Amino acid sequence: MNPLPEQPLSPLDGRYKAAVAGLGEHLSEAGLNRARVLVEVEWLLYLTDHELFGSKRLEAEQARALRQVVADFGQDDIDELAELEATTRHDVKAVEYYVRRRLVALGLTDVEELTHFACTSEDVNNLSYALTIHAAVRDVWLPRVHLLINALYVRADEHRSVPMLAHTHGQPATPTTVGKEFAVFVNRLRRIVAQVEATEYLGKFSGATGTFAAHVAADPSQDWPAISREFVTSLGLSWNPLTTQIEPHDWQAELYQRISHTNRVLHNLCTDIWTYISMGYFTQIPQAGTTGSSTMPHKINPIRFENAEANLELSSALLDSLAATLVTSRLQRDLTDSTTQRNIGVAIGHSVLALDNILRGLGEIAVNHERLAEDLDGNWEILGEAIQTVIRAEVTAGRSSIADPYAMLKELTRGRRVGAQELRDFVNALDIGEEAKSRLAALTPAGYAGLASTLVDYAAE
């Protein structure tokens, strides 16, 4: 058997590559290295802009050319860094040497020693991860989530008045509307996504053990915490003043827990839609050329929602692991975070893939009005709740002397089907006021959805 040509190991880089396009721009090794180069360049420019250690502010064209190194970062640079790291066996040191080479090429050798000045590797790494994670969430994950939320709200609004038999504990229960059930997920998701959007992306820039020791040794006259704060915030991040060698990653744990929570709400959405499809409440729209089963031609399988379920589970498993492990580091630091953080793209990638599948799945289902009406009309006994509640109100108002209305309706309806006429006859014989009797006599399962339709308004932005 001939060996295969080199293949992607992860389905995110193979079968599903198109669905997660955009994440590699930020959460790949190349994206991380570009961010590292950016941090190194901006730190050097900060030092020269403030003319520290006798340096001179670079001319505008020199600064532009140096920043262009980041803007033009491409495959040749990726390959060069790989070659440097093969020698250094240290990724951040390779970036430092790469930047030094660019300074030489630009004729800026007089400031070459300010490259990576007073930095530990984690000073560069933590800022780079914060920048790339922020960009990936902002530019890729959040837009997909908002597309899905909007798609769900469109369905909530469209079907706000379509009655549907609800099921609690899998049993027929007080009706709702299709739109209200979609609106529940809209409301849940919007709340959690707002927390994701409020994430504070923290950065440290304080040396080998977070004490500014090398900085003070180089120039004790400077306010190094103020300089650190100004530099970190200039990158669009929040400054963390108290750290060990590493930024403690608490903000990452918070972010991953929130994305994982989002995943689990979406998982609930998928299992509900899958169940409604199996009950016939939603029909699946045949897609031209697709096959539901290799042997049963009639089948249309709810593969979008099943695929999404699996990817949401994978994403949450990885995100939960990241959140649990990143917040612990031995003493001043250990390297477990280095390996762990390299899987952030995989974790978020499975969530993005799930979002793509759910969006596509929503476009392939339709409400089955006939089946909904049939199920409602076959379960008149669910009006027992309304009848016993009205009787209790009538007893309280002095218009009825019925004892234990709940027991009366339990005797009539529990564990058995009750038809429309049987229920109306029962209502007509009740000892209650005529107005209440008239309301109950006119009630149908399809008309017993309360304020479900207007509750959809609460899901509007």
Labels describing this entry:
461 residues; mainly alpha; Fumarase C, Chain B, domain 1; Fumarase C, Chain A, domain 2; Ribonucleotide Reductase Protein R1, domain 1; 3 domains; two-stranded antiparallel sheet; 59% helix
Helix content: 55-70%
Q: How many strand segments?
A: 6
* Main sheet strand line-up: 1-2
The whole-number mean of residue pLDDT values reads 94
Please characterize this protein's 3D structure:
With 461 residues, the chain is mainly alpha-helical. It folds into three domains: 101 residues, Fumarase C, Chain B, domain 1 (Orthogonal Bundle), CATH 1.10.275.10; 240 residues, Fumarase/aspartase (Central domain) (Fumarase C, Chain A, domain 2, Up-down Bundle), CATH 1.20.200.10; 82 residues, Ribonucleotide Reductase Protein R1, domain 1 (Orthogonal Bundle). The chain is built from 19 helices and six strands. A two-stranded antiparallel ribbon has the order 1-2. Strand 1 and strand 2 form a beta hairpin. The radius of gyration is 31 Å and the shape is elongated. The model has no long low-confidence stretch (mean pLDDT 94).
